[in-house]
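Quick start: what a row looks like.
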Amino acid sequence: MAAALAGAARRAPAYRAAALKALQEALQSFAALPGVAGGAVWEAVAAALLPAAAQPPAAQAAKDEDEDAPPPPPPAADSLRCLAAGWAALSQAEADAHGPAFAAALAAALQPDRDWAVRGAAVEAAAALAKRPPAAGLPPALGVALLGAAGEPRAAAVRAAAIELLGGMAEAGAVDREALAAALVKAEAADANGGVRAAAARALERLRAAAGAAPME
């Protein structure tokens, strides 16, 4: 893992991509092993990759073009996939400790100025966070950012994944249900992609079921 993190800091893009792929596979293996010190692994990975995941694209592009500058940060999308893999190994106490920083990085990576592939990886990572959320719950800013990703115009797969995740978050009360309902009705009626329309219909069913058990916020 240390070698992969070192490789992710190299300048050559192909080297960085290969190192992060190896790191993601290693983290997935660690998460499946009993007794792994998930918190220690997460801290090492997060120290290297959380800043890269949240960094604005203009800053990374400037560093890529300047040969005299230090090597650029690891690619954001690959970093997010590694972070998602590492999150699965955390205990509840560790999730409570590290959840706010992870959620803040994801909200930054979901902003409209990010590449659609970065937003897609951020949705995947948010799904990992939602499976093991901090006891205090997911912050509202993450739900707002995911609602924005549900309207990603460049990639239907990102829209569908964000909508599916938001449906589950609404059941848990982790997103503004009225804002989500409006977005889902619009997507079900007007999205050009059939998969997105179907995802919106499923999420609406979940939202209505949740609203039947608790008042809409």
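That is the whole record. Residues 1-117 form one domain. The radius of gyration is 18 Å.
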